[in-house]
């Protein structure tokens, strides 16, 4: 078939443009430096529309996806109506247009990532898409620990005083990016056919990047991800197959050796920290031990308490768009996506959001049989629903999180009941062939 450009080529180009802009954080970087809002979003929109147009009838969206859409639509409708009644409570500097600009494309963005990942996964396997995202995210992650070394600060001058980390003006956004990258690197340590040693080399750099953000939510989530990786793969050790079992055993041995040898390096690193940085790392240990208070959460628990007091006034309808964190009783913002949805749009979108989250965990735990793919799905779920939704307002409108949510939907769809086999088959470029269903 002779065409000016093949459908598959157009879809691949569109996806890589969309993913490259989102995972490089170039929009956020330009806004932080020059105050220009979303200059590259038009390319994301065009790419997602192309993917949606060609793949609209390709596969069906799943039940968690439906509940996610219900939460977004309900948020837009109910919060918009509530805003009309409670606008007298709002501050005039609330950027309402940004709510629409970020929220309306959310459904389209998740849909485009889901459809393309599903399409590519059924044709060539998931590893091609995941490998591109892993490599690209790793390059962006390296701007965090090595930004000063490569002269990044001489090139980037942020418009406002921020706690910037590499190309991210916000350490919490940087932390979410790093942890998505961490989950993918751990996944490929076992799933890469010939390049596992490359991903093992990436791992300490990614973990170090997490620490130097000094984001407590990022460090707590990173610890959870590593523990989940070890627990799930050790629990399903005999389902991994001979080749991946050997890789896991070798990786565990390396951890023990590296842990014994890195003691002096860790001590030296701790001695270079200032009091504020050291306090944040110590607070991570307190959080992991169950101590949740104003000090360990950097006043977030206080904000959550204030938010709940405001929600009590109008729990059914909420207070309207962008108003929840700007009410006279509130200060700063609530730093929690669940409370934001409940406070601005009321109980019905909140219920849809919670059903979506619960269904994700159920399918991660009981649908996916392959241990390593189960780890990847569960890690993405933890980062999205705990780190991003639990510690930030913009969980349902952050492009990177929306993209990873679409990829998670595709993993759950493609890997239901499947286990990767270690038998010899036709090789792909770098990674394993797509797994077949166990008979």
Detailed description of the structure:
With 439 residues, the protein is mainly alpha-helical. The protein has one domain (61-414). Helices cover 68% and strands 0% of the residues. It contains 19 helices and no strands. The chain has helices at residues 7-24, 26-34, 41-55, 63-86, 96-124, 126-141, 143-146, 152-155, 171-191, 196-213, 216-235, 242-261, 263-271, 275-288, 300-311, 337-345, 347-366, 371-391, 399-414. Helix 5 (96-124) packs parallel to helix 19 and helix 9 (171-191) packs parallel to helix 11 (216-235). The longest helix is centred in the N-terminal third of the chain and has 29 residues, at 96-124. The model is unreliable at 423-439 (pLDDT under 50).
> Alpha-carbon distance between the termini?
36 Å
Instruction: Let me know the average pLDDT.
Output: 83
Q: Which term fits the overall shape?
A: globular
| Rg of Cα set | 22 Å
The domain tally reads 1
Task: Output the number of helix runs.
Answer: 19
Task: Please summarize the sheet with the most strands.
Answer: none
Structural class label: mainly alpha
Number of strands: 0
Approximate strand percentage: under 5%
Q: What is the H/E string?
A: HHHHHHHHHHHHHHHHHHH
The helical percent reads 55-70%
Short description:
The chain is mainly α and 439 residues long. The chain is built from 19 helices and no strands.
């Amino acid at each position: 078939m002779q065409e000016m450009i093949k459908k598959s080529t157009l879809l691949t180009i569109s996806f890589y443009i969309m993913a490259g802009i989102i995972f490089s954080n170039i929009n956020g970087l330009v806004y932080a430096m020059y105050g220009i809002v979303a200059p590259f979003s038009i390319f994301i929109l065009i790419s997602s529309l192309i993917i949606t147009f060609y793949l609209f009838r390709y596969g069906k969206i799943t039940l968690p996806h439906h509940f996610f859409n219900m939460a977004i639509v309900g948020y837009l409708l109910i919060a918009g109506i509530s805003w009309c009644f409670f606008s007298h409570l709002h501050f005039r500097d609330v950027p309402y247009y940004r709510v629409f600009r970020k929220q309306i494309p959310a459904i389209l963005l998740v849909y485009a990532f889901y459809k393309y990942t599903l399409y590519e996964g059924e044709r060539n396997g998931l590893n091609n898409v995941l490998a591109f995202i892993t490599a690209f995210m790793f390059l962006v992650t390296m701007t965090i620990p090595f930004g000063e070394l490569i002269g990044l600060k001489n090139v980037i001058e942020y418009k406002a005083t921020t706690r910037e980390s590499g190309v991210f003006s916000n350490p919490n956004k940087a932390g979410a990016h790093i942890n998505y990258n961490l989950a993918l690197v751990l996944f490929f340590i076992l799933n890469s056919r010939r390049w596992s040693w490359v991903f093992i080399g990436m791992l300490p750099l990614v973990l170090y990047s997490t620490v130097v953000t000094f984001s407590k939510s990022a460090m707590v989530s990173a610890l959870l991800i590593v523990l989940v990786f070890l627990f799930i793969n050790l629990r399903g050790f005999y389902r991994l197959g001979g080749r991946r079992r050997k890789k896991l055993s070798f990786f565990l041995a390396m951890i023990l050796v590296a842990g014994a040898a890195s003691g002096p390096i860790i001590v030296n690193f701790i001695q270079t920290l200032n009091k504020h940085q050291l306090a944040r790392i110590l607070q991570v240990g307190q959080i992991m031990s169950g101590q949740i208070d104003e000090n360990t959460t950097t006043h977030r628990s206080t904000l959550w308490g204030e938010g709940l007091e405001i929600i009590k006034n109008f729990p059914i309808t909420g207070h309207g768009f962008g108003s929840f964190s700007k009410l006279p009783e509130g200060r700063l913002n609530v730093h929690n996506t669940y409370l934001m949805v409940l406070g601005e749009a009321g109980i019905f979108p909140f219920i849809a959001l919670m059903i979506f989250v619960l269904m994700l965990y159920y399918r991660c735990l009981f649908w996916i049989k392959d241990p390593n793919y189960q780890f990847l799905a569960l890690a993405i779920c933890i980062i999205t629903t705990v780190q991003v939704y639990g510690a930030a307002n913009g969980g349902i409108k952050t492009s990177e999180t929306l993209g990873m949510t679409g990829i998670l939907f595709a993993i759950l769809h493609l890997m239901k009941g499947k286990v990767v086999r270690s038998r010899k088959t036709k090789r792909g470029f770098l990674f394993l062939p797509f797994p077949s269903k166990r008979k």
